[in-house]
């Protein structure tokens, strides 16, 4: 009993000092199970590699420079798509959120196109733009766009009426109200939209890279299938999860907290 | 400072749920002199908030005129400052930036508007809270910020819509005393909406009693200032005035 308490206290101290540990510890049993299954030899090694094999592949591919290059390609595509998606989505969301007419006209169209998933666009995109960057960017932008627009509309719609009124009666013009009140009030929602959008976009990107790709993590994984290299496929999967964890937990979630919670807009 | 006049003001709107036109304000005429403190009381549904929203320019009026120094007003404007029941502070701005918002909209440079904001924060005893965010303050402190934010913009008329309704009873008394003190120092023209009769009498020079969208009566309050609750609760004149107004409101 005493020992358990000591372990718990040790864990609490450790994770307070390095919060990253709290995220790593739950993976220890997963890794142990994986090692046990692969070491037990239930499946052929080439079919079901162990953590050590994957780590070795990681070192080799990094050393050769393939992995860093592909990773860079994927991240740049995601960043480009996200930037364009936000540049289109935030103004569109504000327009739909503030204008009743824009809402009436755009909302049904928006919902219609939201239903046509990103991948469902691929056949026609491949005919129009071929196997290239345009097709990939289109899909990412498309995926990022909807969560950003919908959450921006939600955010703009939930701006307390008295806040806009207060700004107007303090001498703000309509344009200033948009900049000084509507945008900051909607910001936590916009960031939530971005967070969702990037999450979907990251998944869509990998799918598109598999089909369209000439490089990127998705391409690496699909290419490894041709060579029957399970090690590289699993490595790709791990990288996807890891990278998203880093982006979401270390960048997006703190950003969301920094805006919403500090202002008391989100009750934590 | 300018005179505010309401001339046969009326508000009728269409209620789609009732399927009929509803008249919230029938016919209200009222003149407010510069530096006057007017309380408007009445039972709920008497149209007092509607009148304030029309003066503030948040909603259009259906008939009559609202004149500020003889000129009709339409839409919100900085010459009519508003203090809201919901405080309506900008949560992403510090207290200092909230109070400096009006001057910022006028294009006052940063250093100057900070100076103005600090002056007004000192007036409300809030100098220590300048760099805090609204959600870090108590309700009473938030509304103090709300009041000085409106004052810092030097409005011709200060419109207050049940501003102390959502703070606790003790804080409310303190805020009322502070408001009378600030009013004496700065002499802004105030229209104060409330359903709390003692509050209305305590604060005002003149109490306007509304009923069903009409002015029922106006009562002059010439109690001496500064007004302090400890003294006024024992004051016969205050008690008589309050009783008289209360009777009118309840009969309304």
CATH class of the largest domain in chain A: Mainly Alpha
Number of domains of chain B: 2
What's the number of extended β-strand segments of chain B? 10
CATH architecture of the largest domain in chain A: Orthogonal Bundle
Q: Which fold does the CATH topology of the largest domain in chain B refer to? A: Rossmann fold
Strand content of chain B: 25-35%
Q: How are the strands of the biggest sheet of chain B laid out side by side?
A: 6-7-8-3-9-10
> Domains counted in the coordinates of chain A: how many?
2
Tell me the number of helical segments of chain B per DSSP (H or I, 4 or more residues long): 9
Q: Mean of the pLDDT scores of chain B? A: 92
Order of helices and strands of chain B: EEEHEEEHHHHEHEHEEHH
Radius of gyration of chain A: 23 Å
Shape of chain A: flat
Largest sheet of chain B: 6 strands, mixed
Describe it for me?
The complex is a heterodimer of chains A (268) and B (252). Chain A has 268 residues and is an all-alpha fold. Chain A folds into 2 domains: 2-37, no CATH class; 51-260, MetI-like fold. Chain A has helices at 2-17, 20-24, 27-40, 51-64, 66-98, 100-115, 122-129, 133-157, 161-169, 174-212, 217-227, 230-260. The two termini of chain A are 33 Å apart. The model of chain A has no long low-confidence stretch (mean pLDDT 87). Chain B is 36% helix and 26% strand. Chain B is built from 9 helices and 10 strands. In chain B, strands 6-7-8-3-9-10 form a 6-stranded mixed beta sheet, sandwiched between helices. In chain B, strand 7, helix 6 (169-186) and strand 8 form a beta-alpha-beta unit. The mean pLDDT of chain B is 92. Chain B is α/β, with parallel strands linked by helices. Chain B folds into 2 domains: 4-79 and 156-251, Rossmann fold, CATH 3.40.50; 90-154, no CATH class. In chain B, helix 4 (110-123) crosses helix 5 and helix 7 (197-203) packs across helix 9 (236-251). Classes of the chains: A mainly alpha (268), B alpha/beta (252). At the A-B interface, helix 9 and helix 10 of A face strand 6 and helix 3 of B.
